[in-house]
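One thing: mind reviewing this one?
=====
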Amino acid sequence: MRLRWISERRVVVAVAALASLASPSLARAADTTPAPSAPSKPTEPAVAPNLAWIATQFIPSPEIAAGAGHAHFGLRWQVTPLLYSWGINRKLSPWRVLVAEPLSRQSGSIEAYLSPEFIDVDGDATDKWLLRPGVRAYFPLVQRGEYVSVSVGSSYQHVQNRSSAAFEGGVYVLYGLFGLQVTYAPLQHTPAGTIVTMRFRYF
């Protein structure tokens, strides 16, 4: 009986010793357990003029200008000095200068733009080229504008000594890469009273 009691006592002592050795290790393991990570803060996109942006600015959008029973081929470019986006994450800056990534534009924005434009009408170079300043707002329709978005805007145009305010509407697909714009100048019936533009644009 005494031998059994001694054996049981040895087992208890051994268990206690093992527990005392394990306690520091468990404490250290608890100290090294990583804390739950906090939600990551949205980072500002690197939007600045670069070679890719410069290259895309030279890609023109073809158009057809119609008025007084005649149609003329044209080309249009666009520069965006300033854009304000209300459709992106509110923790990011809504302002873009010159460079605007597709999501910031098509998810909901308003931009001031300048469009150098060539229309193959009769006359010299001053009659064929114009610089169209304007304002345009974009509104998303499908998948925050990534699939389909629309726009409305107004601009000023001066062609062959005729000046007029112009109004436009547009629809865009695939992040705004492809679009169709219709510009109408009610006070300028010739030679560019109505212009239909196949818009190609990324930045």
About this structure: The chain has four helices and ten strands. The longest strand covers residues 129-142. The two ends are 91 Å apart (CA to CA). The CA atoms of residues 100 and 128 lie 29 Å apart.
